[in-house]
Amino acid sequence: MKIQTKDAAKLIGVTTKSVQNYVNRGLLSAQLGKHGLRSQYEFDLDEVITFAESNGIRVDANLIFELAAREKTQTTSASV
Predict the structure, then answer these.
(1) Residue 37 has what DSSP assignment?
(2) Domain 2-79: which CATH class?
(3) Contact 54/22 with Cβ under 8 angstroms?
(4) At what angle do helices 61-79 and 45-54 cross, to 10 degrees?
(5) Partner of 3 at 20 to 30 A CA spacing, among 65, 68, 73, 80?
(6) For the chain, which residues make up each domain, given as ranges?
(7) 27: closest CA among 14, 38, 40?
(8) What is the per-residue pLDDT across 5-48, written as a single tens digit (0 to 9) for each?
(9) Phi, psi of 44 (to 5 degrees)
(10) What's the pLDDT score for residue 74?
């Protein structure tokens, strides 16, 4: 599942600027994706969780479920 910078930041408890710095330093991988008229980083949820675990950061399972539910809602709305 792909997530945006703000979601990655929320999962690991840092600012979006910190997430961008992790990408720039090669610590976290991201792809550029289109969101409306803007290009933004997209992150693989599993990679963000792995990054967090390898850096001793606890990820709240409720946040993961929230992201999954949001994606399911967006996917359902898009196919209607």
Answers:
(1) T
(2) mainly alpha
(3) no
(4) 170
(5) 80
(6) 2-79
(7) 14
(8) 999 999 999 999 999 999 999 999 999 887 777 778 999 999 99
(9) -80, 125
(10) 73
Which two structure tokens, joined as six digits, stand for 54? 């390898």
For 61, phi and psi rounded to 5 degrees? -60, -30
For residue 43, what are the contacts with CB-CB under 8 A and spacing of at least 6?
A: 2, 3, 4, 5, 7, 8, 19, 28, 29, 30
Q: In 3D, which of 62, 31, 32, 30 has the Cα closest to residue 48? A: 30
Radius of gyration of the chain (CA): 13
pLDDT of residue 38: 75
The set of residues, in sequence order, having a beta carbon less than 8 Å from that of 57 and lying 6+ positions away, is 12, 13, 51
